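Re: Re: ligand-bound prediction request (bumping)

Still looking for help on this. To restate: I need the protein modeled with zinc ion bound, output as structure tokens. Inputs repeated here so nobody has to scroll up.
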Amino acid sequence: MKKQAFSHRGFMLDSSRHFIPAEDLRKLISAARLCGMNRMHWHLTDDQGWRIEIRKYPRLTETGAVRGRSFFGGVSGTENNSGYYTQEEVREIVRFAGENGIEIIPEIELPGHASAMLAAFPEYGCRRIAFGEDGAEQETEPWEYTVERSGGIFPNLICAGKDSTLRFVEDILDEITDLFPFRMVHIGGDEALKLHWRRCPDCRRKMRERGLNSADELQRDLVLQAGAYLAQKSRETIVWNDVLDGGLLPSYFIVQQWLNGEEQTRKFMEKGGRVICSDTRAFYLDYPYGSIDVKKIWQYPRIPAWAEGYEEQLLGTECPLWTERVTNLGRASYLLFPRLAAAGLKARQAEELPWEDFLGQVKGIQREIQAMGLNGAPEECWDMPEDRAKEDRQAEHDRIFAPDALPYEMKERRLTLLEKTERLMLQIGIPESFALRAGDREMAELSGKKTAGNDDGAGILIRQLAEAAESREYGAWKRIPEEIWLDTMRCFPRFIAEYRRSYGRDGFDRGGWTVRQAGCRLFRIGELEYELLETDGKRAVSIHIPSDTRLEADRLNDSVRRAKDFLSEYYPEWQGVPMICESWLLSPALKQMLPPESRIRRFQDAFDLTGEDPEDCAALEWVFYVAGGQRDSVKTEDLPEKTSLQRKMKAMLLSGKKPGSARGTLAHAFQ
Ligand SMILES: [Zn+2]
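Reply:
Sorry for the wait, this slipped through. Here it is.
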């Protein structure tokens, strides 16, 4: 247990989404002092507005601080949409805060949340390439930027590949460090979708030159450079914990932990890193009281589990107030008070206080704040009964998804999902050019552009993998072990490789089959695939043999054993259901053709056959790599004879017989 008050007792105000007039800032700072705060994190730049005068680049505020009507959901209008702080005003606020015992930490967001910056300076955004059918890169129309008018995450990133961008950032940081005397500077780093970077020739070149393996590593690289620049000026750099996705940071950085990634943050602490806790479950004060009330703040552990053992490196806590749906001082006061008082009280106390004592002190602070003319939330919101809390959360949900904001919300969801889908495609080994072509289709659709008709299956691929990625996060795939998830998804690159073998270019034509994998009904476990089949109320586990299966007894038995364990743990109602197989590999005709020691024959021996289809020709696909669409046009005489199986089967076909297939139940171990 940490025995003294936290050195960092922070709150964050977002002047970007809605501009907070200087006069209101002063009132909030005075009230924050009463709450025991000693740091104000000032979120000055974001997609929806650039709010600080930079003398070297006046366009940042001329263009970036001006926004039309907004569509944030529940808050649609023009109140405090535009505006910025002159450098004189900033100095005055810094001075005023200092008199109140509060140091200000400015935040300039990099590389994402940069739409307003890029609307003013599109030249610091990325160039853009597209991949043609032949996989060749070509530069295409540039990205368009605007000061965004709705909430959410946008794909607009500053370009990490151009040296000029870094100079631009350094110029801005020069003026920032000149204005803010406190040693800490925040450079953001959260929610950076890498869609632009993957398609930028400059970013791609930079990754190659620096030996970086992913766009996340490129972000870390950019952060390291900005951090080193600030370190030269004896400043400490704070970043959101998302940056750790690209690898650990040196311990002279400070990480602000807000959402997910606690394991990485803990590793950062193990290496000596310092952390500020802004856990969304306790400190996000734009969330409704139904999600976070005073009691929840009181209950939140003073030292969260991920920081245990590293108490000295937990600098403290910080409460952000994001302002998408906060347009004025009245609303800000309602959300901040008394929750900020509760968080401040917790950060100042070395020991946990009993609830009644805690509540009593919060009440005292709230009275003082009320006396300043700021109206906080009434006491009925401080410890909400669950039914009231549920209503309150629903009301907030309804605001966010209000009809005028809904299209923006849906678009954001699809963009975020596209980012996850592109990551998945690259992770499982889909060729990059085809993956990005597939992603381009989704982006074109999102911006309302028509897409070309023939896409070699890229459109189906991206839809199915998006479904799978979404299911992995929220649906049936969520609870399935990582190895089975990834092994199952690797059918997609395998089918793309098979398509290439047939047609000489990347493509995907197995969407009719892979609905099972995407839909979490078919699992790759070791060498074999297992499908949960239910027809007319009868259940069976159907075994499939992917084209890369190694028909080795040990591996096959291991696969079956693991599949049984898997079913008993994740689908207990499918335990003991017969495992069946329907395949050309079980064909009796094939059995006659092959020698007894053949692996296919030994595979067959594990099954008791229950039926056969002598007319079936599916074997052609597997033995001769004839794509389904080509089966009718193929000439038997032209089939290859590279393997002994090919030679034997070709001879059979020439004699007028068909390879056939059979069904069987798995009844014996593989020998
Ligand atoms: Zn770039």
